[in-house]
Design a protein that fits this description.
Blueprint (H helix, E strand, L loop, with lengths): L6 E6 L7 E11 L4 E6 L2 E2 L5 E3 L4 E3 L3 E2 L2 E6 L7 E4 L4 E7 L13 H11 L3 H15 L15 E7 L4 E7 L2 E7 L2 E5 L11 E2 L3 H7 L11 H5 L4 H5 L4 H11 L6 H8 L12 E12 L7 E4 L11 E3 L37 H15 L1 H28 L10 H15 L1
Antiparallel strand pairs: 1-2, 1-14, 2-16, 3-8, 4-7, 5-6, 8-9, 9-10, 10-11, 11-12, 12-13, 13-15, 16-17, 17-18
Helix pairs in contact: 1-2, 8-9, 8-10, 9-10
GO molecular function: cysteine-type exopeptidase activity; dipeptidase activity
Family: Belongs to the peptidase C69 family. Secernin subfamily.
InterPro entries: Peptidase_C69
């Protein structure tokens, strides 16, 4: 399958408004897939404990950080998310010279969650993912279906001071540090000759396969991809469109600007069809460590018809029940072999309400416009409130333990009135 899904963005000073890092991602997945938003608190583990990922069990670490995740409801990992140290990660499918049809191992989405749970900086997340790739590999079906859809992964990772682009091919990888400006990725290798970290055998492996002569300047995208870097820059691609949209807002990139980009249909970034945008995320992370990061999630498909709702990390944060899908435990068809013999109903409460309101928006133009305006007003009011936190910080943490769920309830209230 040709690259056809996901766009991830990051903007750092001086391209942003104020001293803030802005991270954004559209998760483009099969149109019938449910994406949930869930929170897991920090936790300590014993020395012999394991963690069961989507397909395989691996060794657990002594301590995991608190994380908020937007994830396909059928698997363990996540498409995107953030942790209590304001590290944000999103992954992209990539296809290159190396076959992705390997045995079940860690999914790229598992690596997103593991990176967030185990790293308190963006650079450490690169190292965590690299070690896990070397030890366990990546592989296995990436959608809840028997079709065997597989891919390797690239990751955009940010924290309060910088971002990293990590691109993989099997166990081999290269990483590039981004210290200012903006960067976007869209299902194609983008690291060229600026490589700040790499698998120690990555170049020799390419030379042994005949992909690189060992003498010319090493270009990761050219060597490891089916596609040339010229294709990456070609007009009409979502990568090029996304880069252009960032350029237009350069110096003034804000949360609102990132949301506008994620909602853009003409570029293909807000995707429709068999693969569509099933979840969206925008994070605002001040460079000042005294200030909180605000992480907005839709938990519903199509950002144009969804509300970006804020989450901040505070002690005693409540479980996000309205956006958590049903759990089927060991009876889940994903856990049984052969896998994917059936598909249970994974819709969470917000998804159910949203699905009904989208049908109304599609069927009744004037009524739909009023509903959309009401949703935008709710979002605008919430963002105005979050702006105060981003400027002065969190004075009374207990006020915000139910922030995300409270916004979900307000959104569902708009649906009920409609």
């Amino acid at each position: 399958m040709l690259p056809s899904s996901c766009d991830t963005f990051v903007a750092l000073p001086p391209s942003t408004e104020g001293q803030r890092v802005i991270f954004g991602k559209n998760s483009d997945r099969p149109c019938d897939e449910v994406q949930e938003v869930v929170y897991f608190p920090a936790r300590d583990y014993g020395p012999e404990e394991k963690v069961e990922c989507t397909y395989i069990e691996i060794e657990q670490v002594a301590h995991t950080y608190a994380v908020v995740l937007s994830k396909p409801a059928w698997l363990w990992g996540a498409e995107m998310g953030a942790n209590e140290h304001q590290v944000c990660i999103g992954n992209e499918a990539v296809w290159g010279r190396e076959s992705a049809d390997g045995e079940e191992a860690l999914l790229g989405m598992d690596l997103v969650r593991l990176g967030l749970e185990r790293a308190d900086t963006a650079e450490k997340a690169v190292d965590v993912i690299a070690v896990l790739l070397e030890k366990y590999g990546q592989g296995g079906p990436c959608i809840e279906d028997q079709c065997g859809f597989t891919y390797h992964n690239s990751f955009l990772i940010s924290d309060r001071k910088e971002a990293w682009l990590l691109e993989t091919s099997g166990k081999y990888w290269a990483a590039e540090r981004v210290e200012g400006g903006y960067r976007n990725i869209s299902n194609q290798y983008g690291i060229t000759t600026k490589i700040d970290k790499e698998h120690p055998e990555m170049r020799e492996y390419a030379r042994s396969k005949g992909w690189w002569d060992g003498k010319s300047e090493f270009n990761f995208a050219t060597v490891y991809s089916f596609l040339t870097t010229a294709r990456i820059e070609s007009a009409g691609t979502r990568y090029c469109e996304g880069k252009s949209l960032l350029e237009k807002r350069n110096g003034n990139i804000s949360a609102e600007a990132m949301m506008d980009i994620l909602r853009n249909r003409d570029s293909g970034i807000n995707m429709e069809g068999m693969f569509m945008t099933t979840g969206s995320m925008v994070s605002v992370v001040p460079t000042d460590p005294a200030l909180p990061g605000v992480h907005y999630f839709t938990a519903t498909p199509d950002p144009e018809r969804s509300v970006f709702k804020p989450f901040i990390f505070v002690k005693n944060t409540h479980e996000l029940k309205e956006t958590s899908s049903p759990s089927f435990g060991p009876d889940d068809p994903v856990k049984k072999k052969p896998r994917f013999q059936s598909k249970p109903d994974r819709k969470h409460p917000l998804f159910v309400k949203h699905e009904l309101i989208v049908a109304i928006i599609d069927s009744y133009k004037e009524r739909g416009q009023k509903i959309t305006e009401g949703l935008r007003q709710l979002e605008k009011e919430t963002m105005k409130e979050m702006e105060k936190l981003l400027e002065v910080g969190v004075e009374i943490p207990d006020i915000w333990v139910n922030l995300f769920s409270g916004c979900v309830q307000k959104e569902m209230g708009v649906y009920t009135k409609s």
